[in-house]
Design goal:
- With 493 residues, the chain is mainly alpha-helical.
- It has three domains: 91 residues, no CATH class; 292 residues, no CATH class; 42 residues, no CATH class.
- 61% of the residues lie in helices and 4% in strands.
- The protein contains 18 helices and five strands.
- A hairpin with an 8-residue loop joins strand 3 and strand 4.
- Helix 6 crosses helix 15, helix 7 packs antiparallel against helix 17 and helix 9 runs antiparallel to helix 11.
- The longest helix has 45 residues.
- It is elongated.
- Keywords: Membrane, Transmembrane, Transmembrane helix.
């Protein structure tokens, strides 16, 4: 198809025509070039009376032969084509959609990242706290024996007892609230990812009138997709290590991660120019054929390197580097969860356990159980402690980077803190149920909260865990029967 690059109605019809004409004229813009004159006349006429919704012309001082280009930014953090001219592209609007980048939504995402880090840190602290207290208590006892060997302090240490009791109580509240938080963040992320998937296939969803706005919306959408993967994987991993990963939480987390991966894939590539919405304005210059000037295709223009990197770099870095690691950890969690499910099913005395034994699953599981109880199993457990620590250190480092990327969006003013609305306020209150439950359980205990939710004659009782068969969810009750950990132990009134 022949290009009519001297006709404004053809040049400004869409970005493909603009880019095609630029390439046809050898990427050379001169005063004698008819295509260059068409573009220059359009830009000069528009800059005499800019449209506020589009903006631009921040560096334009009067009619001139403008030096413009239509190029493809091929760097690893860019990967998009755009129209470029320093004088006219200055101050072009790039506002993001408040439904995805409003202040309330932004705070809700940051709260999610902070809360999962808080839960992980204090769960690890509550697990290691008694051990640390015991270590220092032994050191103190040894010091006293060296000073006064004949006098041994055999009385219990009240400080150690209180610290241990506090750690155990807080640990119980943290484990319970992590289950609640994992469920809440899964539903929050499922809703967010479905909205992102719908928006990427509907032009009007993002309400992007310029390329800068579209790039900003895609950048935030990619980071939102990452929050449906990284925090969910951390929560699922921690629940599995704490032996609190029920079938419901596991299935909900798997579904959330799958949907988030699809949403992340949809925002991985640069957006299409066809997703830019036309502006409802009828007073465009006649030299632009009464169409929007090419300023709608202006790329990211900033002297700050962090702006260029964060607009596309945050989501691209996650999809290319952090996401594969998250998928590996997710695969490990799936294997560990299936192993726990098989072991528990085999030893619970149910018909499903008999079926597993009849098909020969016991021949596979039994050697693993014997190995775990041997000397080699003890060394293997020590290795697994080291591997667990290494896995979690990398996950938390990735979480810190994700939080930094989110904070960077605010630094480069991609978040408009003046866009407060009813929906933004509601978004902030999303995590209030989880926070209020945590505070209540920490102050009054989990039994007080659950008493009104469990029908009589059942109630929650503290039981000793039975790990003789390798089952993580089995407990021993007074009658000697084994029951599943997710069942309610019947207690005598």
């Amino acid at each position: 198809m022949a290009r009519n690059c001297s006709e404004p109605s053809y040049v400004f019809q869409d970005f493909d025509h603009l880019q095609g004409c630029y390439q046809q004229h050898g990427d050379i813009v001169t005063a004698n070039n008819p295509f260059a004159r068409v573009v220059n006349d359009c830009l000069n006429d528009y800059c005499r009376d800019p449209f506020p919704q589009l903006g631009g012309c921040g560096g334009w001082s009067g009619p001139t032969e403008l030096n413009f280009s239509v190029t493809h930014n091929a760097s690893v953090f860019m990967g998009y084509s755009s129209f470029n001219n320093d004088a006219t592209c200055a101050d072009v609007k790039g506002d993001t959609n408040p439904d995805i980048a409003g202040p309330g939504i932004f705070i809700a995402y940051m709260m999610q990242l902070v809360m999962i880090m808080y839960l992980w840190f204090f769960l690890r602290l509550s697990c290691s706290g008694p051990w640390v207290a015991s270590y220092f208590s032994k050191r103190r006892s040894l010091s006293q024996e060296l000073i006064s060997p004949t006098e041994k302090n055999k009385s219990p240490n009240p400080v150690k007892a209180k610290a241990t009791q506090l750690f155990h109580r807080h640990s119980a509240a943290l484990k319970h609230i992590l289950v609640e938080f994992q469920e809440a963040q899964c539903f929050f992320m499922l809703a967010s990812q479905i909205a992102i998937l719908w928006s990427t296939h509907h032009t009007a969803a993002y309400q992007s009138y310029t390329l800068r706005s579209l790039l900003g919306n895609y950048s935030i959408a990619g980071l939102v997709s990452s929050t449906g993967i990284l925090p969910v994987v951390i929560g699922l991993w921690t629940l599995q290590k704490m032996h609190k990963c029920s079938t419901w939480i596991f299935a909900l987390s798997v579904l959330t991660i799958i949907v988030s991966e699809v949403a992340l894939f949809s925002t991985r590539d640069a957006p299409s120019m066809t997703q830019i919405m036309p502006m409802e304005y009828t007073h465009w210059p006649a030299s632009c054929a009464n169409m929007a000037p090419p300023l709608v295709y202006c790329g990211i223009s900033s002297s700050r390197i962090e702006t260029r990197v964060l607009i596309r770099g945050g989501s691209i870095f996650f999809s290319q580097w952090t996401n594969p690691y998250c998928l590996v950890v997710f695969g490990l969690v799936v294997i560990l969860w299936i192993h726990s499910l098989v072991v528990n099913t085999m030893y619970d005395g149910s018909q499903r356990g008999s079926i597993l034994e009849s098909i020969g699953v016991a021949r596979v599981v039994s050697p693993i159980q014997r190995l775990s109880q041997s000397t080699w199993g003890a060394w293997l457990r020590r290795v697994m402690v080291f591997v667990t620590g290494l896995v979690e250190v990398v996950l938390i480092a990735a979480l810190v980077m994700d939080m930094t990327a989110f904070q960077g969006l605010s630094v480069i003013e991609l978040i408009d803190w003046s866009e407060w609305s009813f929906g933004q306020i509601v978004a902030i209150t999303l995590w209030l149920p989880v926070v209020s439950k945590y505070l209540y359980w920490f102050m009054f205990g989990t039994r007080a909260y659950s008493k009104a939710r469990i029908p009589s004659p059942y109630k929650i009782v503290k039981q000793r865990t039975d790990t003789t068969h390798g089952g993580y969810n089995s407990v021993v009750v007074q009658s000697g029967r084994h029951i599943k950990g997710n069942q309610i132990a019947e207690a005598d009134d």
